[in-house]
Structures are given as structure tokens and as C-alpha cells.
Amino acid sequence: MAPKPLTFPGIFSALLAFSFSLLLFCHPIIGGHNYHDALRKSILFFEGQRSGRLPPDQRVKWRRDSALHDGSTAGVDLTGGYYDAGDNVKFGFPMAFTTTLLAWSIIDFGRNMGPELKNTVKAVKWSTDYLLKATEKPGVVYVQVGDAYSDHSCWERPEDMDTLRTVYKIDNAHPGSDVAGETAAALAAASIVFRKRDPAYSRLLLNRAIRVFNFADKHRGAYSSSLHSAVCPFYCDVNGYQDELLWGAAWLHKASRKRVYREYIVKNEVVLRAGDTINEFGWDNKHAGINVLISKEVLMGKADYFESFKQNADGFICSLLPGISHPQVQYSPGGLMFKTGGSNMQHVTSLSFLLLAYSNYLSHANKVVPCGESSASPALLKHLAKRQVV
Description:
Blueprint: H1 14-23, E1 29-30, E2 33-34, H2 35-48, E3 90-91, H3 92-109, H4 117-134, E4 140-145, H5 148-152, E5 167-171, H6 177-193, H7 199-218, H8 223-226, H9 228-231, H10 242-256, H11 259-268, H12 287-299, H13 307-320, E6 330-331, E7 337-338, H14 344-365, E8 369-371, E9 374-376, H15 378-387
Enzyme class: hydrolase
GO molecular function, one term: cellulase activity
Domain Glycoside hydrolase family: 35-389
């Protein structure tokens, strides 16, 4: 049997069509493309990736229960969650990032999702239920289930898999601030989604996010150093853990409104390199997302102490706009954003998502982005994002 190819960036690829669908959901059929249907199928993809005991309302009927003993070798229950890409490994780092982005999508665009909103909320909860299990023990985060090498050597349905279900964790002696910081961000963002839908569950998510973030910050280090042989080259963190600490603090600030996180962000802005590589956004690099997320408060006139983050966000936007400055992002002859390396579409859609989010924030504040001698209006940002779709 031919070995299974390495797959990047995993379940995050589900966000590609999902993000595109959000762009045009208010105009569901354009140029013969039905984006309403694309949104439905994007969310359905997550149900196809479910691990564990499936619920009665499972819509992907050809899937069955699987991996019902995950975690048993370590004496913990790690059933549930999502498989990654076309394999049967559960990678905690990209799963948590996917959860954060799904939650952010609901927070900012849920009103546009129509009947798919309830399914998107379920997709978030399927992941957060698993992340709660993975963080139940204080001072420990279980970050992966399954041996990637043996798994990638064998194509098989999760219902039939007989590959190793090795459990990997980070702890005080083997830190992983990157994956722990992202997990805290996911739990905090999801707590906002459930604040009115299920207040008790929302409080559980937020309290766990606080605990996991404290662990990530106190025991600093990259999980790809602690668990290098298991997570590299699959989800090796090459950009450092600093951005995940700021990202986690930003979501905790948004979810809790506690001054301690505002002070943490301001104090650590330079130390944790908030302005680095600002034209990147993905499971391994959160800098642009941090700046856009925090800038909303500045644009709403509520947080002048975050002004430097807005300046970073403006610089990020200008770096994407052809003809306004000297963009750091290349474009194909047809106008598609292009970044070197594999899985270009993850960059296209994640950057498009930020363009749309920032466009909305600017519109509500009646602002534009200053780019040297020119400026970029909210309409221009939205136009560029739509060009990536049609």
C-alpha cells in the first residue's frame, strides 16, 4: 500500500471554503456559484471529521463511531474532537486554531449564516468539549492523539484504524506555550459564543481558558522543542510561541474584560513581538490576527492604549493592497494572493477573513486606512476580499 502523503494544514483547510462562503453569503448566488450551499457543505465537512461517539443528529450518515478508547493508554478520556485532514491523527494545535477562527466567525458574521448558524455553533462545541478533556488536569495539556508516522503510512477509515493511538502531552517540565496559548484562545473565544446560549458552559470555558493561559505563560517554551519527534514536520511551530501568548491574552481580554489582560498585552507588546511579520495569519503565526482583533476597540474609541496595535493593523492592510504601497504579498496574474510554500489557499482565505473583519470595524467607526499618500476605504478592503472568491 502506498504511504499516505503528509497533509498540511489539516482541518484548517475546512475554513477555506467556509471563509469564502462568508464573503458572499448576503448574495448567495453570484456568477453561477451558490455560496449558500458552499457554506452548508463547509460546515458539513466538520461532521465528517468528527472523532468519538457520534450524536443522534449526525448528518454525515456514512460515518460511524471511532477511536472510542483514545487516551486510555494514559489513563484519561480523550475521545471526541476532530481528525486532521485526510488522516486519523488529532493534532491539538491546528484544531484549537480552527476552533478560535470558527468562534470568531460566529461572533462577527453569525448574523449572516442563516440556518447554518446552529450547525456552526455545534461545530465549535464538538471541539471545545474535547479541549476541555485535554486540559482537565491542571498543569497538563494533551496535545496529540495518534502517531503521525504510522498513521500516514496507512490509508484507512477511522472506524477501521489499527495504527498507534499514542498520547502526547505538555507539562511543567515539557512546556508548550504555543499550543497552550492557542488552546486558551479557543476556549476564551468560544466562551463568547456561548455567553447567552449556555451561560454555565460559557463560564466553564472562560475559567479553563484562564487556567490554561496561566500555565502557558508561566512555563514558557515551544511544544515543537518538547515534542519535536512527534509534531515535526507536521505542525512544527517555526515562528515561536510569543504570538500565541499575545493571541491568548487578546481573546481573554475580549471575553473577560479583566484589566489584567489589558495590562499584560500593553506590557508585553514589544517583548512578545506584536509587530513581527504582520502580513501573515495562520495556525503558526497570529500576528496580523492579534492586531486586527485588538484594533476594533481602538476604532470604537474605547482603548487608546492599544493605538500601536491599530498602527500595526493598518500596516498589515497596506501591505496587502496592490497599487497603494509596495505590497509584501504577491499576486497571481489573475489577482489571487500568492505566498510561497505549500497550501497557498490557507493564506488566501485567512487574509481575506481579516480584510472583511477589518472592513466591518472601519465601517462602524467611519474610518479609512492611511497608506502613505493614499488611503484604503472599507469598500476597497471588501472588494479585494471578494476578488479572491469570484
